[in-house]
Amino acid sequence: MGGNFSRTVVRKAVRPIKNINIDERAQKAVAKHKVKPVAAPLHPTTKDIIERQVAEHPEIKEEMEKQDPSLIDRVNTLHVDMVEKMPQIRSVQRPLPQSREHIEDPLLALEEPRKIPKGKISFRQFGTILDKHSGEPKLHQAEVVAKEYELDLQDTINLLKYFEKIKLEDLGEVVDVKEFGAKWTYDPNKEKKPKLT
Q1: Range with lowest mean pLDDT among 117-131, 133-147, 150-164, 167-181
Q2: Is the pTM for the entire model greater than 0.85?
Q3: Pure H helices in 87-152
Q4: What would the pLDDT profile of 19-56 be if each residue is shown by its tens digit?
Q5: How many CA atoms does the CB half-sphere of 176 hold within 13 Å?
Q6: Where are the domains of the chain?
Q7: Which residues contact 101 (CB under 8 A, 6 or more apart)?
Q8: Which burial class, exposed, middle or buried, applies to 109 when counting CB atoms under 10 A from its CB (0-12, 13-18, 19+)?
Q9: Hey, is 186 helix, strand or coil?
Q10: Do the Cβ atoms of 116 and 140 come closer than 8 Å?
Q11: Which among 8, 95, 138, 142 could bridge 157 via Cys, Cβ 3.0 to 4.6 Å?
């Protein structure tokens, strides 16, 4: 206990002394290691071509090294005016949604949208339409459904033609799935849950 306490006190006492003039010391350390930028090395074939050209025509090297005063004057007289203002970036601080409402049907696990645009339906409405149509197809035809939910008639016809709810059928058979590797049998006449064997 005493050793930990004394180490903590010493660390806290030494920390301000360590941090004195830390910015200047960091800049000196960086300046020591600063290396003058060097151009990337040329590919050997390119290097040979340039050396051969410079050897054959020494005036090329002089031309490359001298500065052209007319170009420097042009650069100095260059002035760029901005016509448009730069767009300002605004950060919109919108609060996060704080809805803690209970979802009515936990099996769907979807929140019903508050506003549904014309010509669209929600997932729950989709299920209701399929239920009504499968129960009484003559009463809930495509024209009636399209008018009730303000849908496009062709989309409604395709919806009722190509979609239907999954039906669970109990055939009343004893299912023995041991041959598939399972360790249970199911007899719908005797019990409600599968019995482990």
Answers
A1: 167-181
A2: no
A3: 123-135, 142-149
A4: 788 888 888 888 887 777 778 888 888 888 888 888 89
A5: 2
A6: 123-162, 169-197
A7: 111
A8: exposed
A9: strand
A10: no
A11: 142
